[in-house]
Amino acid sequence: MKRGFGGASLAAATTMALAAGLTAAAPAAHSADDPVQVVVDGHDIRADNVNGLTYKGLGLLSCNSTSNLLMDYKAEHPKRYWQLVRVLFGGRNPLINHVKIEMGSDTNTSTGSDPATMRTADELADASRSPGFQLAADARTVNPGLKVSILRWVMPQWVQTEWNKGTGTDEMYKWYKETILDAYEKYGYMVDYVDPDTNETTKPDVSFVKWYKNALTNDTDFADPRYGLTPRQQQAAAKAYHGIKIVASDENTTKNIGPALLTDTELFGAVDAVGYHYTTEDRLDGTPDSPTYRPYTKLATGENTYGQDKEVWYSEGVGSFGWTDFRVHNTEGPGGASTGIGGVQSALDVANRSVKSYANSKRTHYIFQPAIGAFYEGAQYSHKELVSARDPWSGNIHYDAALYVMQHFTQFARTGWENSTNTAGIWRTVPEASYSGVSGTENVDGSNGAPSYLTLADPKKRDFSTIAVNDSDRTRTYRIKAENMDLGDDPAMEVWETRAADPGQAYDADFKHLAAQLRPDDEGYYTYTVKPRSIVTFTTLDRSHDKATRQRLPESGARTVLDTDATGKRHDTRDGVLYADDFGYEEEGPVRVGSDDGRRTVSRPYLASRGNQPRYLVDQTGAWEVGKEADGDNVLYQYLDQSMKDTGAWNRNTPNTTVGDFRWENYRASVDVSFPDPQGGLATLGVRQQKGMAATDAAYGVGIGPAGNWTFYRYGTAIRTGTVAPADGYRLAVEAKGARVTVSVDGRAVAEYQDPTPVTGGRVKLGSDFHKVGFDNLKVEKVAGWTPYATALTDNMDGSVVYDGTWSRNASLGDAMNWYRSTSTGAGAGASVTVPFTGTGLDVIGGNDGSAVLDVTVDGRPLARSARTVATDKRQATYRLRGLPEGRHTATLTLRSGKIVLDAFTALSGDVDGPVDTTPLRTALDAVGSPDRSDWTADSWAVFSATRSAARAAVDGQRGLDVIGVDQLASRLTAARDGLVRKEA
What we know:
The chain is α+β, with helices and mostly antiparallel strands. It contains 19 helices and 52 strands. It has an 8-stranded parallel beta barrel, surrounded by 4 helices. Strands 22, 26, 27, 29, 34, 35, 36 and 38 form an 8-stranded antiparallel β-sheet that branches. Helix 5 (157-164) packs antiparallel against helix 6. The termini are far apart.
């Protein structure tokens, strides 16, 4: 009997399933200590199952601004961008085989907003606004077999309005179709899959899925001028369009579409793939022969009433939370040991999710949300990606070690989609040789040491690979045997391993390396002991000399601070400009874009290549796009007005967008604003934004409307209000230097504020209400006498940071508002941390209650005793050290009392423009006088002497000294004099 096809009855299918052990039990459970025995039997390789058991590999989801900055990388650092495309999508064994695009609606449903391809029913679709469509086009240049899918979550208001009436099917179809055809016209590829239903529904819209499938199949209109297709293109487009497959239903907390397919013949015929999110499990309701018992396994194996197999996807899952580089220094293992590359929400956790989701629900495709984090840190769900690309001006891209872990699934098999003639040779998953006993359903935990393995095999039975994950602190021995396989004359097996480095090794010394070469024993078993906190791939393929398999991931490169000349294009630290944008982009050249279904790239003008999206802006809500003024000049407009605003957005905020560098500290931001909408408008400018997704998440901001009413805000709370003359436009400015913030309108200061608990650094935000509002001539400038920015951020778990005493260093289940989701907490007197840095000062970042009291030494010399910290929100400085000579330093902070939470450290730049008044320092030196050293204890004199020497050196001239440094040196000197302790008689 051929598996997976024919008109078998439900009883016959169930009998077959029980015999095969697929919908009944997994491979027998393994004891805690016995070797894990895996038999790869060629009879279990289902070469005729072309949908459910073919291993598609990995995909990525592009949505909600996660890919936003990639278009800037392409324009500013094209070599780095195309390298990223090759790393993720290229080669003989691509890591990523699928780009899934969640169509935007200009509203925020996660980490930000993606532009709507059609903001009104009459507007021509523009897929180039959404970076996901272009990313897919570029990826197809190196991976012609790449699949592209689309779905929706929130729809534009013109669709939403009709949908709410129960009559919006035509509008929904129009939005989908015109977007699909626009991508086809611009990039040459046809979308492969569409999910007509809403993302993360709990009640699949079965009737609309059927309606959509019918409409798609019977559509003959491809000549409408709106589509922009030539007669020749129309014929090809029609054929490709009718081949689009249907996905249903991207559920999250429910699993209803599986049983629905098994009980609805029409729905079963309409749907090609099923997917659901954030769980590894199948549904287990009812008796084994019921449609609610293992429905997804039945769909994948084809052992169902219809005798046909369907694709089953893990259609949205997470990557590794935080950076593996840092989390290997955690203390979450037994006795405070590190969990290496493992632990909950680690690289090994993601590997176990892939294994367990197959073992328990036969899913053969895992889609990361996101695989690439190309949006600014501080938004919801930050740092859960495989690749971090957040500084397009620098070209810095961080490739996480989790990529090596996931390559264990893709580099030792032929992955992808089988062709219609079943000749592509895509490897099959082997259920009988796959198992997972780790605990958990989403954040899985392998610390119980249970076996976790997945087997992939060549459909011709010539080779196989078994991936084993050991996310525990003890070894696990595997004995693997091949039966009924055609392994050839040389049955040697290679073992490829990835784990954290041993002491004294380089960080990546044990990432994806050939660990052993095995031969079967007399009984035919290959035996190998898998080390703790590691992943291995056992493969009969010969990859020992394969250059691509041994290829290391690219180096990250430096995270250069955004500091440009007046064009905003060229890096320049010598002038007074940090960044500028007139939105004309004459300084930008053409951009290469994937075209002709990946067969070539073409050169397109900068703005046209990106759907008129502005440079470096990451939208949180709103339609931010470059348009033309009446005089023809380019202006940044926010287009989401009263006629477009009422959508089903998850994170409901007024329109706002973010630009700049999180390391900016003391600067003046200014912008021209205008109000072309006769119904009204509001424009806001904010500074020092570190986290959050609303306009009010800028620490300090000003808002104004055409009537001239302005308000100065601190985190959305009104501090000052006033009125200037009504006008069609204004120039707004906010200057933040230290604790003092000044707001100006048209060059005149209208408000000043001295913040008793200042927020010290962050990006610029632009905002509006739901009217069309214009922004132009954005400029961010340095402030004379003040350090403009920090130059580097060092995470609390960076390997250069040394801890002594009792610390808790945690990454699992970490908060997205902490850098890289990690923190180190000290609560015992005497606990110390030593940090190397280069600059003129150091900020200690972390959410704290202000209870910590510190002793501070720099370069081995005492600098402060009993220094107080301040209560701070996350990503803010609880302790600030300034006034050091520019250069390399080492600071040691020792806890005297209280508790301190360390998130990160930022080193301050010595690039200070303009003169600095050192009068406060001279006054402090005069005030302390010349005490006699013999009168004071050695410890207290050491602090005073070192502090006085530093003050004298600074007065005589010190590069990089700024206003805060002068004040801190004077305060430290006074405190050191007051802290002198007389010797006892």
